[in-house]
């Protein structure tokens, strides 16, 4: 027995050679996946780089613009506390803690030192609140921000207003991240992608003005009329690739958050119970506990498991969309042309090899990724790992190969279902006629894709999941914005069809008979057909697949060099981008070959090459940043994240989706703020979810998120939080406080088995643990800083006047240091510190006399 136990590996420590091996296997799997895509290059072009109906992007523009306003209006009570210089961070604190990287070319005296300083400001974590953060300025900025978002939603100069809205959103997010949650990450990730879409090409003021301008000149192709040469359509097709990026982003969110939920609570099925019973999440106190007592050990567990597997397997929807594209176009000439034998079998071999590598990676990594209880014995650990690996083998060696075999079998031998004559005779006549019209029913590859990998399954489950969150959990805008992202999975034609159905429904209703007919006719025109792909002339010839593969291998080599420790790659990276542009320009000049019936391609070869490079680079940066944060992946995770980390930081697309992972909280955590007066009295200011319990809780309050963060992983905020409340106490009461105490209150949630056996519990009667976390003395003995007194017209003491003078002198010295540092920079247009060449003075030689022989030149020699 001792010999057997000694053979049980220690899964808490990863062997370095195993970590390196897994990293190389991941890199090889990525290369094989790209090789498979290379064998389907024309399909990649005709999908990712194609054109489509613009109305999907119009829906996203309207939804994102309006929801952004609601997101920040919800935080209206905390604008001053979060972003103004009278809040948690004075402007000096904000500049030093958050604005250092963006303000290297700016001083309070000079402003931006040159045009490069503006670019450096935008490239860093920029925020105009580092420059001016008075409460009035913050309020005015937020109102202007709302106005820009509203203009963007209506499609007024949508390119300009969209960019301004994103920059202003970044200003807010970059200043203080205390309140940020998954909701804000969704906004930033999708808003950035939406910047590249032509969102104003439909259902916008931009398109209305454009149509009016063309109609006046007789150059508009009106909806419903036959096409005429030289006329522009009402709805011009727009590039599709931002939609595919948004679809990939949603897959990344769900898949990554599902894969890290490896804890025992999720495996047992109790996560929904604990999440629903957190005091800062549920809407209906006591009602929630009553329902949980009945459903916690049965229905809630089933819902937990369905949610977990839905998140982990959400990438199946992406696979379904790939298969749908192939099924829709498999009979077209361009698609048949790429289905030559060598492409088919080479692609299949690459895909099979990639699958086997992923299988191997999961087998090697799983023991080091699963959550092992701290008190687990060696036998329990071995059994836990063995059971998990058995499930992995069942999935990879049984279920997935079986589904693949079924797919190919249905492609060759589709099933046709008929009702027996005896059963048909017993069915009522009307129902029999309906069945006869629909039968025989064919179950083929399209049916399998539709019912196993289709949107009706995966998006419907998401609608149920987020709808449940909206109804029963108070988590703010997160479920709303997640449902908004589902709009990217529908096409513009589908939105137009939905609008036509709605208009027809209104026409038949009593309301439609009262509305002016012109209104309904106008709405019907909004749902008219978009531009036909055949009407778009091709621009330039597509880049040959071999050249694309070589460029891809070049990028893979750069990633390999960076992952293995090579640092000086800037020249090579710029050279790679230059080569992509050169290849694109070359093939843009070649005459295109028109292909009738094929999806129209966007742009010319130059922009298509740039877009493909951008999509691959952005996709890799997000995908690699979301790689599991387990030790077994550490050898490759840090180098690859360093390769793309700057891009993610600048664009605001850094993300992590470890919500309720590996386990959800099983205890309620609150923060209590207590002000201590000079007389020793303690006052609980009461702004916490423990004291404030509305029923039902309708509006989300970000204070709960901020409190939980400050008493757990964000304790560095507490000093600034205490200083803020010292100032607020003085402003509210006129009394100088002495200190602020931060308390952590916690209550443990009873287990599902306990409430099932004993009945529901009252959350207000749970045992409370009160822990003093930190105590901070009030700065300036509880008085206001001089700049706040000046703002309010309060008199200053001589000491405060001296303090202002000292701060001004210190700012002047810091500004001079920053000027010198900026002048000596080596990047952002700088050439480094000036170097003065020192000239050696010439050696004085005596003037030769008339009879002296001049010295010979050294080259003469003797």
Task: Tell me briefly what this model is.
With about 850 residues, this protein is an alpha+beta fold.
Description:
- The chain is of the alpha+beta class.
- Helices cover 58% and strands 6% of the residues.
- The chain contains 37 helices and twelve strands.
- The strands form five sheets. It has a four-stranded antiparallel beta sheet. Strands 1-6 form a two-stranded antiparallel sheet. A two-stranded antiparallel sheet has the order 2-3.
- β2 (106-107) and β3 form a beta hairpin.
- α2 (16-39) runs antiparallel to α19 and α30 (570-588) runs antiparallel to α31 (605-625).
- The longest helix is centred in the middle third of the chain and has 35 residues, at 378-412.
- Mean pLDDT is 86; it is low at 1-7 and 837-862.
Portion of residues in beta strands equals 5-15%
Distance between the termini: 95 Å
Could you tell me the radius of gyration in angstroms?
A: 33 Å
Characterize the biggest β-sheet: 4 strands, antiparallel
Strand order of the largest sheet: 10-9-11-12
Helix segment tally: 37
Structural class designation: alpha+beta
The shape, in one word, is: globular
Helix content: 55-70%
Low-confidence stretches: 1-7, 837-862
Oligomeric grouping of the chains: single chain
Number of strands: 12
Mean pLDDT: 86
Helices and strands in order:
Layout lengths: L1 H5 L9 H24 L1 H8 L2 E2 L2 H19 L5 H5 L7 H7 L8 E2 L3 E2 L2 H9 L11 H20 L3 H18 L6 H13 L10 H12 L3 E2 L10 E2 L4 E2 L1 H19 L4 H5 L2 H6 L10 H9 L3 H14 L2 H15 L3 H5 L3 H29 L8 H35 L2 E3 L3 H6 L2 H10 L2 E3 L1 H8 L2 H18 L5 H8 L6 H17 L1 H5 L2 H10 L18 H19 L6 H19 L16 H21 L8 H18 L15 E11 L4 E3 L18 H8 L7 H16 L3 E12 L3 H7 L10 E9 L8 H6 L6 H26 L39
Parallel strand pairs: 4-5
Antiparallel strand pairs: 1-6, 2-3, 7-8, 9-10, 9-11, 11-12
Helix pairs in contact: 2-19, 2-29, 2-32, 4-8, 4-10, 4-25, 8-9, 9-10, 10-12, 10-25, 12-16, 12-31, 15-35, 17-23, 19-20, 24-25, 26-28, 29-30, 30-31, 31-32
């Amino acid at each position: 027995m001792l010999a057997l136990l000694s053979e049980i590996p220690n899964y808490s420590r990863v062997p370095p050679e195993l970590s390196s091996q897994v990293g190389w296997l991941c890199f090889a799997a990525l290369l094989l996946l790209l090789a498979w895509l290379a064998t389907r290059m024309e399909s990649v072009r005709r999908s990712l780089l194609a054109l489509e109906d613009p109305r999907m992007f119009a829906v996203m523009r309207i939804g994102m613009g309006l929801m952004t306003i609601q997101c920040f209006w919800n935080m209206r009570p905390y604008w001053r506390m979060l972003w103004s210089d009278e809040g948690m961070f004075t402007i000096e604190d904000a500049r030093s803690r958050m604005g250092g990287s963006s303000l290297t070319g700016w001083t309070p005296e000079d402003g931006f030192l040159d045009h490069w300083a503006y670019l450096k400001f935008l490239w860093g974590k920029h925020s105009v609140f580092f420059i001016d953060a008075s409460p009035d300025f913050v309020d005015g900025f937020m109102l202007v921000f709302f106005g820009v978002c509203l203009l963007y939603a209506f499609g007024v100069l949508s390119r300009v207003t969209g960019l301004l809205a994103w920059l202003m959103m970044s200003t807010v997010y970059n200043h203080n991240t205390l309140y940020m949650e998954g909701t804000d990450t969704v906004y930033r990730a999708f808003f950035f992608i939406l910047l590249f879409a032509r969102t104003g090409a439909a259902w916008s003021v931009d398109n209305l003005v454009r149509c009016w301008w063309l109609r006046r000149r007789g150059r508009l192709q009106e909806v419903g009329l036959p096409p005429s040469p030289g006329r522009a359509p009402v709805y011009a097709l727009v590039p599709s690739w931002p939609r595919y990026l948004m679809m990939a982003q949603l897959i990344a969110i769900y898949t990554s958050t599902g894969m890290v939920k490896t804890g025992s609570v999720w495996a047992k099925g109790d996560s929904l119970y604990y999440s629903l019973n957190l005091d800062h999440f549920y809407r209906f106190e006591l009602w929630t506990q009553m329902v949980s007592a009945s459903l916690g050990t049965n229905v809630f567990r089933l819902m937990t498991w369905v949610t977990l597997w839905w998140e982990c397997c959400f990438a199946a929807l992406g696979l379904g969309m790939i298969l749908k594209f192939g099924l829709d176009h498999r009979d077209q000439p361009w698609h048949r042309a790429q289905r030559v034998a060598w492409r088919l079998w080479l692609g299949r071999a690459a895909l099979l090899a990639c699958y086997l590598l992923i299988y191997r990676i999961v087998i090697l990594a799983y023991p080091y990724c699963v959550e092992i209880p701290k008190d687990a014995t060696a036998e329990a650990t071995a059994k836990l790992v063995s059971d998990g690996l058995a499930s992995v083998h069942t999935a990879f060696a049984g279920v997935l190969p079986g589904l693949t075999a079924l797919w190919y079998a249905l492609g060759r031998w589709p099933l046709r279902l008929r009702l027996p004559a005896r059963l048909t005779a017993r069915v009522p006549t009307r129902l029999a006629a309906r069945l006869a019209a629909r039968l025989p029913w064919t179950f083929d590859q399209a049916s399998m894709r539709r019912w196993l990998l289709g949107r009706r399954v995966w998006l419907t489950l998401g609608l149920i999941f987020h709808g449940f969150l909206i109804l029963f959990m108070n988590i703010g805008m997160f479920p709303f914005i997640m449902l908004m992202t589902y709009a990217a999975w529908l096409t513009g034609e589908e939105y137009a069809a939905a609008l036509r159905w709605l208009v027809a429904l209104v026409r038949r209703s009593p309301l439609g008979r009262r509305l002016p007919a012109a209104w309904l006719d106008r709405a019907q025109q909004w749902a008219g057909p978009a531009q036909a792909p055949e009407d778009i002339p091709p621009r330039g010839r597509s880049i040959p697949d071999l050249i694309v593969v070589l460029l891809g291998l070049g990028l893979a080599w750069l990633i390999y060099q960076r992952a293995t420790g090579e640092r000086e790659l800037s020249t090579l990276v710029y050279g790679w981008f230059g080569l992509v542009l050169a290849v694109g320009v070359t093939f843009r000049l070649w005459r295109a070959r028109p292909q009738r019936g094929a999806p129209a391609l966007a742009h010319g070869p130059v922009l298509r090459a740039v877009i493909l490079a951008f999509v691959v680079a952005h996709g890799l940066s997000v995908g690699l940043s979301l790689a599991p944060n387990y030790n077994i992946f550490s050898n490759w995770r840090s180098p690859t994240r360093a390769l793309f980390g700057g891009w993610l930081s600048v664009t605001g697309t850094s993300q992590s989706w470890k919500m309720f992972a590996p386990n959800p909280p099983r205890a309620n955590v609150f923060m209590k703020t207590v002000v201590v007066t000079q007389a020793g009295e303690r006052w609980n200011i009461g702004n916490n979810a423990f004291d404030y319990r509305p029923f039902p809780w309708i509006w989300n309050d970000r204070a709960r998120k901020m409190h939980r963060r400050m008493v757990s992983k964000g304790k560095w905020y507490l000093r600034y939080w205490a200083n803020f409340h010292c100032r607020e106490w003085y402003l509210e009461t006129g009394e100088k406080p002495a200190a602020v105490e931060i308390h952590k209150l916690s209550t443990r949630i009873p287990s599902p088995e306990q409430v099932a056996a004993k009945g529901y519990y009252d959350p207000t009667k749970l045992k409370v643990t009160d822990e003093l976390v930190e105590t901070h003395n009030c700065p300036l003995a509880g008085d206001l800083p001089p700049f706040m007194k000046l703002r309010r017209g309060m008199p200053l003491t001589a000491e405060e006047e001296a303090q202002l003078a000292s701060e001004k002198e210190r700012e002047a010295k810091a500004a001079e240091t920053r000027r010198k540092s900026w002048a000596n920079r080596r990047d952002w247009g700088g050439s480094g510190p000036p170097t003065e060449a020192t000239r050696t003075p010439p050696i004085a030689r005596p003037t030769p006399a008339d009879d002296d022989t001049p010295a010979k030149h050294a080259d003469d020699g003797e």
